[in-house]
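A sample follows:
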Amino acid sequence: MNLRSLIPSLLACAAVLSSAGCNSAPGRPGPNPEVARPEQLLDFSTLYAQNCASCHGVNGHNGAAISLANPVYLAVAGVGNIQRVTSLGVPGTAMPPFARSAGGMLTDQQIAVLSQQMVALWGNPSTIGGITPPAYASSTLGDPARGLQAFMKFCGQCHLDASYPNGLPTGAVSILLPQMPDKLAPGSLIDPAYLALISDQGLRSFLIAGQPEQGMPDWRHHLTNPARAITDQEITDLVAWLASHRIATPGQPYPSHP
C-alpha cells in the first residue's frame, strides 16, 4: 500500500478524533473531586500545619514565636486580634501577612477558620479566673525609667544574670530574689538581636501570657515579695524599657560607616 492510498484513511481518522475531541485521549487529566483547590481547604489542622507550625510550634507549643495554644494568651488576645495579626502580619518582624489582600496566600475564610479554631480548641475562658487581664494592646505611653524598676522587681529573678552578666544596670533597685535553677536558663531580654526580631506587641504578649512550657509565668504569678500581679501600666513601662535597648545595627559587630 502506497502513501497515496493511505491518505483517505488518515483523513477519516482525523475527522473522528476531531469530532470526539480529546475526552477519550490517553493521559488526559480529568476532574478529581477528592483534590480540593488550595483556597477551598478549610481543615484547621492542615491550615495550621502548613502556615503556622514552623514558627509557633506543633499544636501551638514550643515554637520560636509565642505559643498560640496558651489559654491565657488566647483569652487576652481574642479572635479579633488573632485574625487581624494573621491577616496583616507584623511589620519589621518575621510574622508575614497571610491575607491575599495583603500579599499572602490565604482567603479571609481560611484565616477566620484558623483564628476561631485556635480559641475554640485551645482556649479556656476560665483560665484567668474572672480576673480582668491587662489590655492586649497598650493605650498609654510607657516610661523606660519605671520599666527598669519593674524589670528588677518582676523579671530580674530569672533574667538579671543573662541581661547584665557584668553587674547590675545603672540605677537598678536592690530588689533581688533567689534564682530558680530548676527552670531552663533564660536568655537576655535586652539582647539587640532578640529585640530586632520581636515587636513591642510581642514583648507585651509574652509579659502578659508568659511562656508556660519554658517556666515563665503569666502576669499574675511573678514571685515578688509580697506576691502580686503586674499592673497594666507596669507592663507598658517594661516594654518601653526593653524597646529602649534596640539598636540600628543588630547582629553586626560594628556599625556601618558611610
Observations:
- The chain has two domains: 38-127, 144-243.
